[in-house]
Amino acid sequence: MELRKKHFLDIVDYTPEEIDRLLVVGQKLKEDRLRAFGALSGKTLGLLFEKPSLRTRVSFDVGMQELGGHAIYLSPQEIGLGTRESVPDVARVISRFADAVVIRTFAQETVEQFAKWASICTINGLTDASHPCQALADILTITQKFGHLQGINIAYIGDGNNVIHSLMLAAAKMGANVAVAGPKGYEPDPQVVARAGQDAAQSGSRISITTDPLEAVDGADVIYTDVWTSMGQEAEYEKRLATFQGYQVTQELVAHAKPSAIVMHDLPAHRGEEIADDVIDGEQSAVFDQAENRLHAQKSVLLMLMAPTVFETL
Ligand code: CP
Ligand code: NVA
Which residues touch 129 (CB under 8 Å, ≥6 apart)? Predict the structure, then answer.
């Protein structure tokens, strides 16, 4: 196995065929949650979290149980990654106890460094720069709703953050178009946009960046948004609240997309900021199916990394 493929660190490490296989297995696990029960019998997953979490923590914990293994949650106070103990030391110690680890942290480099020193599978459970588990669940949701990804138009309204970085990379690989609309100065990382552009050229899709939400949602099948202030940016809350006015996903904005469009949000939502209550609770909202899909998509990742022979037979 290629070194990086021992881990799940970033969408860019996986080919469209591999991503497609992850989706197929995720869908099968959704249809029968206990289908692969026992595949991870006796295996332990460490959950090493430096930021809060509902979905990521619970879905990995439940996912391990449904595969016959178990998870241990390690809070920031317990580990002190890089403060109480160095990242390489933590990685080498956990590698002696557990079979895989999910890390949620700040710098992408921390996850990369951990993976380098760990002898076990390392899964990126969100960094400031990326959220690949979310992106996998997102494209699983879109596939379930529309039957395919090729040619699907995704409009992302808001901050150019970790969530859109991974979603953009996943969409570009799989042939979906992405139009991002956000205020000037809050665009996605140009390096990520450039990489997504290369993959889009291969898959026949388009990536575009604008400041105009109406332009982005024109012809959209999916309208996606995320918080304006991500974890770790709390000091910028007031400034961001002012800057992002005009970028709320409202019913009026949704009405400019296709009538069949779905609305997505990775959650947690700041209702009344990036999304209006009647949109997130409305008929076009797919957000709770999307949240559920974290479980199915991540069980697929766990099997791919920890029980590849079972993964192949599903
Ligand atoms: N979407 C997501 O990652 O949620 P949590 O922060 O609750 O894990
Ligand atoms: N962009 C958000 C995603 C939370 C799941 C954050 O990083 O806080």
Answer: 107, 108, 162, 165, 189, 192
Same domain, 59 and 121: yes
For residue range 220-229, what is the model confidence (pLDDT) as tens digits? 999 999 999 9
Does ligand 2 have an atom closer than 6 angstroms to the CB of 133? no
pLDDT above 90 for 76:
no
Q: Residue 2: its pLDDT value, please? A: 64
> What is the full DSSP assignment across 160-217?
--HHHHHHHHHHHHHT-EEEEE--TT-PPPHHHHHHHHHHHHHHT--EEEES-HHHHH
Q: Provide the domain count of the chain.
A: 2
Does the CB atom of residue 9 touch ligand 2 within 6 A?
no
Q: Whose CA is nearest to atom 2 of ligand 1?
A: 55
Identify the domain containing residue 184 by its residue range.
132-291
Query: What CATH number did the domain enclosing 17 receive?
Result: 3.40.50.1370
Residue whose CA lies nearest to ligand 1 atom number 3: 56
- Separation of CA 42 and ligand 2 centre (Å): 32
